[in-house]
Amino acid sequence: MTDIIEQFGQSTIQHGPHSNRAYLMSLAADDLPRLVPYLDQLAQEQAYTKVFAKVPEAALEPFRQSGYEAEAEIPEFYRGEEHVYFMGKYFCPERQQEQKPDLVESALQAAQSRQGHQADLALPDAMTCRLAEPADALAMADVYRQVFATYPFPIHDPGYLRETMESHVDYLGIWDNDQLVALASAEKDVRGRNAEMTDFATLPDYRGQGLAGHLLERLEEVAAERGIQTAYTIARAYSYGMNITFARGGYTYSGTLTHNTQISGELESMNVWYKPLAS
Fold first, then answer.
1. Are the C-beta atoms of residues 22 and 14 closer than 8 Å to each other?
2. Fewest CB atoms within 10 Å of the CB: 45, 130, 210, 251?
3. Which pLDDT band, with edges at 50, 70 and 90, does 263 fall under?
4. Which pLDDT tens digit goes with each residue over 209-250?
5. Is the pLDDT of residue 95 over 90?
6. Got the DSSP string for the chain?
7. Pairing between strand 11-16 and 4-8?
């Protein structure tokens, strides 16, 4: 089951029972202030327990007045100028209370202790890394099916992968001879000059070889070539590996989104990391 993506004016909202939330993915200033009560209404009608909103600094006040609180922020996010805030509003006290605080803290400390200490990113022999093409979509969907039992977006669908590849997502893969064994993507906001580094997946037999770090470094190079100024991620807070990957890559931690995203059957908290890219 995947969530619905809909437009409210020029703003984009993702919502559904999968993560039991509404997510304001992009905000157009002309849709304020009407958008804020609409999000409350949507949550109440659908019985969602959280609204998660990505809000430019200039638009913060209507959200704060409606009870939203900042869970993370990224400086100079839009065009290298305006900050963004990841705002949360909870409609269930239990969801707002972190259920695994020790795990979140332990994974974060492990990552920050390795900040900037990059491992050797050379690929093993017989492996190659390149941008994925539409003809790779079947193999990509198969990798995602093996790694993620469920996911907020339909990455198990080759048609969705081809469509996003053609519109705004760069997918990068690592092949062992002819087999696709690891995959990640950069979801670009070309106008805002930022990109989310996401959808990291490595087949079980190939883990522990630093493939995620290699993919991240190459994705940054591709993004910078396309004019992207800020890279960021929303990483699983319970995952030592992914948080360490971003810390080693020089990313800065900027906050935790509590019980934000359902992945493989469990609502997980997510850590926000960001990095300015060299032009």
1. yes
2. 45
3. confident
4. 999 999 999 999 999 999 999 999 999 999 999 999 999 999
5. yes
6. ---EEEEETTEEEEEETTTTEEEEEE--GGGTTTHHHHHHHHHHHHT-SEEEEEEEGGGHHHHHHTT-EEEEEEEEEETTTEEEEEEEEES-HHHHS-S-HHHHHHHHHHHHTTTT-PPP-PPPTTEEEEE--GGGHHHHHHHHHHH-SS-SS-TT-HHHHHHHHHHTEEEEEEEETTEEEEEEEEEEETTTTEEEEEEEEE-GGGTTSSHHHHHHHHHHHHHHHTT--EEEEEEETT-HHHHHHHHHTT-EEEEEEEEEEEETTEEEEEEEEEEEPP-
7. antiparallel
On whether the pTM is more than 0.90, the answer is yes
- If DSSP codes are grouped into helix, strand and coil, which group holds residue 230? strand
Whole-angstrom Cα distance, residue 237 to residue 100?
Answer: 10
Q: Is residue 208 a contact partner of residue 246, using CB atoms and an 8 Å limit? A: no
CB 232 within 8 A of CB 74: yes
Query: For position 121, what pLDDT does the model report?
Result: 76
Helix H or strand E encompassing 50: strand 50-56
pLDDT band at 190 (very low <50, low <70, confident <90, very high): very high
If you search the block for the tokens 């949360």, which residue do you land on? 88
Q: Hey, what are 104's tokens?
A: 């979140």
Q: How far is CA 110 from CA 182, 213, 242, in A?
A: 24, 16, 11
Q: How far apart are the C-alpha atoms of 188 and 196, rounded to whole Å?
A: 7
Sign of the dihedral defined by the CA atoms of residues 216, 251, 3, 260, in that order: positive
Question: What are the tens digits of pLDDT across the range 127-163?
Answer: 999 999 999 999 999 999 999 888 878 899 999 999 9
Q: Residue 72: what residue type?
A: A
* Phi then psi dihedrals of residue 142, to 5 deg: -65, -40
Amino acid at 81: E
